[in-house]
Amino acid sequence: MSDEQRADYNTMREIAPYTKLKPEERMGQTSKIIDVLNQNDNINLEQAKKIKAYQLNQPYVKTEGNNIVKNHGDGSMNIRDKLRNTIHFKDWVIVYSCGKNPKYDDQDADGLVTLLSKASSVYGVKFDEPGFITCDSKCHDWKQQLGSDIEKNGKPQIVVLFFSPYEDKFYGEMKRFITCELKIPCQVIRKKTVLKGKNPMSAASKIVVQMNQKVGGTAWEIIPQEGAYTSRHRTMYGSFAISKGKKGFTLAFTGTINNEFTKVFNYCKTGYKNKETIPQADFETMLVNWAKNYVGFNKKGPELIMIFREGLSTQQIQRQVKDEIGALNNVIKKIGQKTGKENYNPEIVYTIVNTKINTRIFDIPEGSTHSNKFQPRVNNPQSGTCVLDELSIDQMYDYHLAAQKVTEGTCTPTHYIVAHNSSHIPQEELAQFTYEQCFNYYNWSGAVKVPATLQCANKLAKLVGESIQNDVTSGEVLNSFYFL
To answer: Are 359 and 233 in the same domain?
Structure first.
């Protein structure tokens, strides 16, 4: 299905009864198909089988001070404390249009400020009175009025675009202007979401967390397991994602630059004709700039480098990973030269990530009966269910991880193939780290399907490929979560 079809609510609702089968329905239909196919003498398919799975430890998150928020065991968290690091919005602007009744538009803008102030109190975020920039209904005027204000008053901490429904068409152009030309964070807020939605306070709360994160705050911090390998080594981890946009394919990278994995570096290039022929030099450029940011922040090079790479099939792994590891080794040499260590040789873990797989994992409740055809009562696996596998491809091993607790349809786990590993991190501990980082995506209070940097890289690639449509390779925004 195309992205347009997936975005169509009515289309997705009509096909949901066929695509969102409950675990028992999925198991039953799969079993029947296998029975039918096995009636052919030349076909011998195996029915579902029992496998050994591990339940990874539920991570804890730290908010302001030493407040600990434990997730509910289903991959969700309820963040209702002061955030880990909060921002005081002293200099921010709201841009909106005034129509035939400017009084009502002004009231809507004032209502937004009031709503954000109320929603932010529980998080410890403060909002001073913003600057108000009024425009007509043309995108050109929005850019002109905002540019003039910045020329007169300087760059604000963040620009809030307050859109009416008919102004959604400005989204891409304004995002491109503010991100690539002004190089400052931007928050788009739709009037129908916060003023006419079913739960305005809930929507405003999510917006407050996003704005705090975009300007340099930190919502929460993951507490690693005691004695964790990544805690005992200076670790930086990052992810590559590729997305198809309006001008070709987009390559995005997001990587952490501090040991708490809360500060990031981003880099994004677009316009590639083929995702399989992206130059090695472009991968190396992203990694070099990442390394510069890490060393600049820590004054030392990392001892462990972990990279998650999406967008490769099993057949492409051998060739592509070899080239990308070559690029990473060139970067390591440069880090050694920068830090004055001739024999600098950090450990590397390079993992391929695939979310579009046919594998399904089911949980068999205690006391569930089953026949020889293996048709027991089954549920979706719990958040943190991990199946460790062994592959016969060189030195690679793989694992399947269900980070989220799926409540609609059948769970599809994420497949991780460790294509290169020069570290001594135990396999179970690598899976635990991966699971913990699924909780570190600040646009969702709970686990996402993949580690946070990969989720961020995917979000960045889609934003740039579909809306900004321009390389984002410079400016302060590279060290922010501007894409949330």
So the answer is: yes
